[in-house]
Amino acid sequence: MNARSFALRLKITFWLAICLGTARMSSAGSINLAPAREPDISFRNELQHAIDRGLGWLQTNQNSNGWWSTEAHPAVTGLVLMSFQGNPGRNAGQPQPPSIERAYHYLLTSVQPDGGIYRSNLNTYNTSVCMMALLAAEKPEYDPILVKARRFLVGQQNHLAGDPLDGGIGYGDNRTRPDMGNTLFALEALYYTKQLIQDKSPAEPDLDWNAAIKFLQNCQNLPSVNSASWVADDAKNVGGFVYYPGNSNAGSVTNAATGKVALRSYGSVSYDGLLSYIYADLKQDDQRVTALMKWLKSNYTIEENPGMQQQGVYYYYHTMAKALATAQVADLKLSDGRTVNWRRELGLKLLNLQQRDGSWVNTENRWWEKDPALVTAYSVLALELIYRGI
After folding, report:
1. CA–CA distances in Å: residue 243 to residues 218, 283, 354
2. pLDDT tens digit string along 18-64?
3. Interatomic CA distance for residues 130 and 116, integer angstroms
4. CB 60: neighbour CB atoms within 10 A?
5. Could you give the angle at which helices 267-279 and 209-218 cross, rounded to 10 degrees?
6. Which of 185, 197, 194 lies closest to 117, judged by CA?
7. Alpha-carbon distance 47 to 108, whole Å?
8. Alpha-carbon 238 to chain mean position
9. Exposed, middle or buried by CB within 10 Å (0-12, 13-18, 19+), for 344?
10. Which residues in 227-265 are b (16+ Cβ under 10 Å) and which e?
11. Torsion over CA of 27, 242, 189 and 50, rounded to 10 degrees?
12. C-alpha to C-alpha distance for 205 and 291, rounded to whole angstroms
């Protein structure tokens, strides 16, 4: 296979799996293609109108130097670029507007000698998101940058034999403590660039995927695979995820009868867990996946980020859409017996939350969600995934 056809195969896989939202987790654990349901043209038109308005706001609010929101964190610009590239209404043969070219130029100026793509901190997060944006550009000339960035991410994995933090990935800026967020972003970028290192001589380093799975398991409230003292054994929390071993942003709960203190599971990080398990090629019927799906079905809501209320709710919407689309969940059968079309419900929710100027913004500032550029990118990306399955 020549370099051009190789790059084309990679890009097609990427678009089908992420931007088109037509990938699913097979019984073998890998991500495979699956047909979407019969399209709802009327609702698609509504979604496309919201997407166009969101992208219009983003284009108007780009800094003249190519970045959005902050020069210090290219990941924000990377997310915006992905929202433009994933627009279902975009003509694939149409040249990119100068604003997109400026944004990609800014990302390239953020490439560091060590292969990472960052400015001053949050090195793993920035590198991972920027890799996905560069991959979305469909330019084979970016492949050497992606290979070096991949090497950088592999080097961020913790190797702490016998420690529950072993196998995870942290921020990468002299803070080695890993967490679910950084691990997910890294796994995603590494998963979708695997083909770039196939048949390389000498062989490129790769992640210790088994250690990564062990770290994910160590973040899951599941007594059958995680024996840590903080692991919950009550139905409300079993199967969900916490931020990292021994820490949950949703706090803890004390069993009145036994006095045991356990950590609460919460929504956004549990969808992080589902995506991470998919990228790590766990089987669909693996007990860790089935327990997680049971928790997600029991805690399904579009009114809040379960366990966190409105904190991080737009990241929750974005990750929920990506996780359920990638797992090819058409309708979600909840624990109470109801069956919901999550795409329609989440799509309508985002339509109603859109501001008059086309942007989205959270009233809660946690995790930068008062930044309209970041939140608008999250919302547009979610709507694009929803569009593909409606």
Report:
1. 10, 23, 29
2. 554 434 333 333 334 344 567 899 999 999 999 999 999 999 999 99
3. 9
4. 11
5. 160
6. 185
7. 32
8. 22
9. middle
10. eeebbbeeebbbbbbbbbbeebbbeebeeeeeebebbbb
11. 90
12. 32
Two tokens, residue 289:
């996946």
What is the C-alpha separation between 166 and 181, in angstroms, rounded?
15
- Among 178, 166, 86, 168, smallest CA distance to 133 is for 86
Q: Which CATH fold topology does 3-21+34-389 show?
A: Glycosyltransferase (1.50.10)
Neighbours of 111 (CB within 10 A): 19
Q: CA 123, CA 174: separation in Å to the nearest integer?
A: 10
Q: How many C-beta neighbours within 10 Å does residue 151 have?
A: 16
Tracing tokens 């990377």 back to the chain, one arrives at: 78
Tell me: the pLDDT tens digits for 147-187? 999 999 999 999 999 999 999 999 987 667 999 999 999 99
Partners of 253 in beta bridges = 262
Are the beta carbons of 277 and 292 closer than 8 angstroms? Answer: yes
Domain layout of the chain by residue ranges: 3-21+34-389
**CA gyration radius for the chain?**
20
pTM exceeds cut of 0.90: yes
pLDDT of residue 334: 95
Q: Which residue type, as a one-letter code, is found at position 232?
A: A
The first and second tokens of residue 19, run together, are 């931007």
Question: 210 vs 131, 277, 282, CA distance in Å?
Answer: 23, 11, 10
Unique residue bearing structure tokens 């959005």: 68
What spatial distance separates the first Cα and last Cα of the chain, rounded to whole Å? 35
133's tokens: 């944006």
Which of helix, strand or coil describes residue 376? helix
- Residue 359 near residue 54 (C-beta atoms within 8 A): yes
pLDDT at 29 (0 to 100)? 38
